[in-house]
Amino acid sequence: MRQRRRWVTALVLTFALALVAGCSGSWAHTTPGVYTVYVGEPQNALIPGNTNETNGGNVIDALFAPLVTFDDETLDPTYDGVAESVTSDDRITWTVKLKPGWTFHDGSPVTAESYVKAWNWNALASNSYVNAFFFANIVGYTDLQSMVDGKPRATEMSGLQVVDEQTFTVTLKAPFAVFPITLGARAFSPLPEVFYDDPAAFGRKPIGNGPFTAETEWTRGRGMTLARFDDYQGGVAKAPGMGFRVYTEQSTGYTDVLAGSLDIMVGLPEDARGSAPATFEDRYLTRASSSITSLGFPLYDPRYADVRVRRAISMAINRELLADIIFDGSVTPAHGFATPVVDGFRPDPCGQWCSFDPETANKLLDEAGFDRSKPIDLWFNAGSGHDQWMLAVGNMLRRNLGVDFQLRGHLQFAQLLPLQDEKGMTGPFRAAWSMVYPSIQYYLNPRFGSAAQPPNGSNTSFYSSADFDAAIVKADGAESIPAANTGYQAAEDVLVTDLPQAPIFIGVVQAVHTTRVTNVKITPFGGIDYAGVELLEDR
């Protein structure tokens, strides 16, 4: 467990302990005016700055509105969120102007101070928030991360300045052309003053500025009910309310959608992916996904420290066969670290290291002196449809490398993530990544930057490369986004050489819903446009 203050540790334990099987969400079936959505248990309490996984992120998206939004098709910034504009003359000092009239669910105004104070809190080393890394390029961040006598050297970043109620400035350490796009991330959400009175209570029942307000506290193993926020400035939700219902097994959730007792489910169990289109017809939805799934290597384990071992494992996996046989062609083999939804994507930067070549793989394994008598542990979270493909990967390693394997798929997602952060992986682990803002940069620096290692970020392979970090800095400083993307490709080339993760497949988003709801749409980020869902009938 990463080092946290006692109240943070308590929150993690509350949300990450062993969960009850299935879902105890029958309470929602008689709730009038509420549509229900499938979700897994969040890793942490529901605080934007400490949420970087899909389950908690889905809930945050309903409760909080971002500064910057994006066009559904082009992914260009649209500024339909709280920000009126984000401008700079030098790409170093940025001025953020807010739209007037936005309020939190408790009626207090959303101001420049709401952002500046929240960002400072998120960046404090003493809080150990998983999204602290997002603020690393702001002047003064290092002081908040430097501990002196058990306390941060400073509590406010000097690069953040409130100009007036609707305006604040952000001074970065270096030019960053992509900065306005990054502000679509949940980490940059505002916090009301009441948060600082009791962060633990807030994490159970957040007060946000989004389309829905928390009507109940989050209950572990069950979820929460939300009500429409009628004063929402981003377009009032069409349904009176919604509910997130916690499941530990996809199959149980899918059965409930079939029975009409759960309204919306994103992500289908393995045995339903082929039949769902015919079963649900126009209530089956699909969209190109921003998600990429890889095998992460624990670089802190001497067994996987040699790049030849990592390359051998990658080359022993037949990605095309995996996509065709296990996923019925619904996923695309991955040969790089980004996905086609972002500019700067290349179809095959990985080249030979992501190609199926057992002969070369065995030579590399022999050169590295790898002990083939010891099984390879394969880690993944339980109940989310990963058993078959991870079993297939294990069988490929056994057949093509002569190394046995053990599946470690007994932990729920909320239990597995802290173990990854604690360097607790004893072998390759499922590492999935979906964008929260549309840039190739998001697929690179937040996953592999040296400063993004836990507890401050998502670099759970604990990869560190001066060459990669330097390439990112150079790309950040480009004069335009197209030029920056070229630079990010150079950073991706460093990853290809070092292979801290082996890209496996690019996903597709599949969703189903009942006849009780309509206007259900998948967003470019793989979630649901909750505010747009219409309720056709009550239970």
TrEMBL record:
UniProt domain Solute-binding protein family: residue ranges: 81-452
Cleavable signal peptide: 1-28
InterPro entries with a match to the protein in the record: Peptide/Ni-bd, SBP_5, SBP_5_dom
GO molecular function, one term: peptide transmembrane transporter activity
Domain of life of the native organism: Bacteria
PROSITE patterns: PROKAR_LIPOPROTEIN
Example GO biological process: peptide transport
Keyword set, alphabetical order: Signal
GO CC entries: ATP-binding cassette (ABC) transporter complex; periplasmic space
Pfam families found in the cross-reference section: SBP_bac_5
Protein name: Putative ABC transporter substrate-binding protein
Species annotation: Microlunatus phosphovorus (strain ATCC 700054 / DSM 10555 / JCM 9379 / NBRC 101784 / NCIMB 13414 / VKM Ac-1990 / NM-1)
Source taxonomy: Bacteria, Bacillati, Actinomycetota, Actinomycetes, Propionibacteriales
